[in-house]
Amino acid sequence: MRLSRHRVRNAVIGVLALALTGLAATGCGGRVGEGGRVGLVYMDAQGYYAGVRKGMLDSSRKLGEDVQILEINAQGDASKESRFVDTVSSAGVKALVMSPVSTTASIPAVRLARNSGVKVICYNTCLTDEATRKYVSAWILGDPVKFGELAGAKAAEYFVSRHITAPRIGVINCETVEVCRQRRAGFEKALFARLPKARIVANQQGTTIDSAVQVAERVLTAHHGLDAFYGESGGATMGAVKAVRQHGLIGKTVVFGSDMTTDLARELIDNRILKADVDISGRVVGKLAARTTAQVISGDKLGSQIVAAPVELYSTPHQARKWLATHPDGLP
Questions:
Q1: Which of 94, 147, 242, 260 is deepest in the core (most CB within 10 A)?
Q2: CATH code at position 260
Q3: Number of neighbouring beta carbons within 10 Å of residue 194
């Protein structure tokens, strides 16, 4: 995650600390709590969530009705998330926009908000199917199965072009959340449809870059001649790329990944290790969140509880250069 990676990470941590900021957010046909408050929860400090925040700010500043946003980085901690939701529900927020830490552990907090009269809008992650139907007004979601299918199809295309009929692949996962499990399901579906002899030889968790490097190094040691990694998140992808480079396997082991960052765009331009990356723009999700929150607060009827966010495949150096040109601040 760069501007340099450390500059973006420091900026994200600063942005996502508990804060009270002025924000204007309206959408088609309604206002986001004119003069009121909205709670905003980020699951952790990955750059994606700074992109979400920027998308909301960029959208709202064009439309200009003041509303206060109470925001927090939950740091992957359901108890911290719960305390914040309890606090803002008591403070009279009109809506809560959140990427829940857990499909199950986050249910009590969301139920409390709903029972307090707060409209809940999920983005990225949400709750169990039953709890989502019961307590959530809308869910902004890029189809995670399609997300994985795009990566799996590109991986299959790569192996077929090199006459590799039975590739051995290691997965670095983020499967504490349901969307990552669905990403893998999509990846495997598309891969096996074209290469039925392909094998997933390892599937281990490594969400942050540092942990993913360690996990990927263990996989490379245990599975000599590994053909590829699939990284289910940005941290998992970058960790796999670093491990391949550190083991001197450029040209032998490749990576197919998720969640575009500046570092990953540069790796895709280099194109020796990273061959494709699938992304859902945090900025776009933030804009959709602002618009959807406006509609929900105004009582507008949504066509569906699921608000679709676009899923994009980046698989060429040209596409990566274009991404960098349109994201000079490094925020996805």
A1: 260
A2: 3.40.50.2300
A3: 15
CA dist 228 and 255 (Å) reads: 5
For the stretch 212-242, pLDDT in tens is 999 999 999 999 999 999 999 999 999 999 9
Cα separation of 17 and 36, whole Å? 21
Range of the domain at 40: 5-142+281-301
Residues 230 and 220 in one domain: yes
Compute the distance between CA of residue 324 and CA of residue 294 in angstroms, rounded to an integer.
31
Region 191-210 average pLDDT:
97
Of the listed ranges 44-48, 50-54, 303-307, the one predicted with least confidence: 44-48
For residue 180, give the nearest of 235, 245, 217, 134 by alpha carbon. 235
Say if residue 167 is in the same domain as residue 257. Answer: yes
Residue 327, in any domain of the structure: no
**138 in the same domain as 26:** yes
Q: 111-157, pLDDT tens digit by residue?
A: 999 999 999 999 999 999 999 999 999 999 999 999 999 999 999 99
Gap between the Cα atoms of 70 and 41, Å rounded: 9
